[in-house]
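Morning run. Coffee first, then this:
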Amino acid sequence: MKKKLLCVLLAGASGTLFAEIVVGVSVSSTGPGASLGVHVANTIALLPKSIGGETIRYVVLDDASDPTAGTKNARRFASEDNVDVILGSSTVPVALAQGSVANETAVPFVALCPIPIDPAKQPFIFAVPQPISLMVDAVAEHMQANKVKTVGFIGFSDSWGEGNFVAIKGKRTTAGLEVSTNERYSRGDTSVTSQMLKVLATNPDAIFVGASGTPAVLPQIAALERGYRKQIYHTHGVVNRDFIRVGGKSAEGVIAPSGAVVVAEQLPNDHPLKAAGLEFLKRYEGAYGAGSRNAFAAYAWDASAIIQAALPVALKVAKPGTAAFRQALRDAIEGGGEVKGTHAVYSMSPTDHYGVDKRARVLVRVEAGDWKLVR
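And here it is:
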């Protein structure tokens, strides 16, 4: 598959001692994950062209939502472009494949989707989106508070679907939830009628859809067309305007966990992420129009913030373009202390390459065609 070069250079020449800093960015601008990836590409155009006087060059490639293409991108970044850090895809199967390459080649990798990370075995891999477990906890707490006892699950037949299924199934003890089904579908499917009939046959108190992007609309529509009127929950992978646009009226009432940035104006004034969220929204919507906000654009912004905080430390150790600099950058990300982003106050450590806590989540509901804060 021919890789599409979206953006090569977003910086001028450097007049300092150091070589330019090169950031490789793989985005799902096409394919099933396009409703997420295009917003990441939008954010890259807004990122700094220099940090601390050092030029930054962004090499942005489309991975077409395909793990094979994503792997090729990551190998190109490491071997041909000699990047200092990689921002990975916003789709889990692609990011998992890319992370393996980055860890193998010792290039710091910041995923833009919540992939599983074992820091002891994957020291070069980090992630900015909230981990699945943290977000499903919020969903389960809402279910418990609303006396939900049985949950019908339908999700992607890949690592994202599996991660969400395992998380909600694990709430049997802590939240008293019984998962009645485990139905799956592919990201490229056009119908989930047979799977939804099996879900509805168990008459669950609620449905949890373990999917992301616009393909997550399929179960939503299928359930409502067959008369389901109880609560349907989704993952934080659907919190963008495209999900609402494609779902139309069927999306009304959906509840999903999200980073606070999507509803920044609705947050109390003392919320630790309100100011950062409002500043990002001013920049992003100023460039792309009112209502263009979405969680994935903000993930890319936060990934950049983490890298920006680590770069001055790494530059004191080695020059960009060297193995020593990549190691120093990895070390600085891992031990850089608190970085305030739009989604979270990040604090990476040798045992936690997410570095987020409950401040990184809220619940939102689709009301009148927009995301509204639940709590």
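The first strand starts at residue 5 and ends at 7. Good start to the day.
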